[in-house]
Amino acid sequence: MPVEPLVCPHTATRVSSVLNRDVKHFGKQHLFDGSEETCWNSDQGTSQWVTLDFPHPVKVSELQIQFQGGFSSRLCTLEGCRTGEELVKISELYPQDSHAMQISFQVEETVLDKLKITFGSSTDFFGRVVVYHLGVLGERL
């Protein structure tokens, strides 16, 4: 099966925080809008995260991410589960502190309904994370 983007308008997205609660300018909707001018900007804190609840089961195989240099994460932990189950660790990724699109984080293929991406160890002194693009690729089941 071909790999395709898994986030759709029916995917429920939550984030740990938004800078100054300014959802209009820095909210979660900017993770997937395809614009190079907008971003999700977390507030400060030690661990930021994004959760995705897919409307149907998916098999995740790849993660694409574009941070703002200086506001990236040295460690991304992926956890996932099926509906009604507890999250389990799938993978750990080690992104670069760069503004470039980082596209080849291969993930051990896992069937899930919910994905949580935790951004630990921010390169920003205050723990903020800035993400211009988040792509979750795989197969819809």
Please report the total strand number as a whole number.
8
Name given to the CATH architecture: Sandwich
- The mean pLDDT is 92
What is the CATH top level name? Answer: Mainly Beta
Order of helices and strands: EEHEEEEEE
Distance between the termini: 10 Å
- Low-pLDDT sequence parts: none
Q: What does the largest sheet look like?
A: 8 strands, antiparallel
Predict the CATH topology.
Jelly Rolls
Number of domains: 1
Count of alpha and pi helical runs: 1
The value of Rg in angstroms is 14 Å
Q: For the record, what is the CATH homologous superfamily label?
A: Galactose-binding domain-like
Shape: globular
Content-based structural category? mainly beta
Helix content: under 10%
Q: Strand content of the residues, in percent?
A: over 45%
Keywords:
FA58C, Nuclear receptor 2C2-associated protein, Galactose-bd-like_sf, mainly beta, Jelly Rolls, nucleus, single chain, 141 residues
In short:
The chain has 141 residues and is mostly beta strands. Helices cover 3% and strands 53% of the residues. The protein has one helix at residues 23-26, and strands spanning 4-5, 12-15, 40-41, 48-67, 73-81, 88-93, 102-122, 130-140.
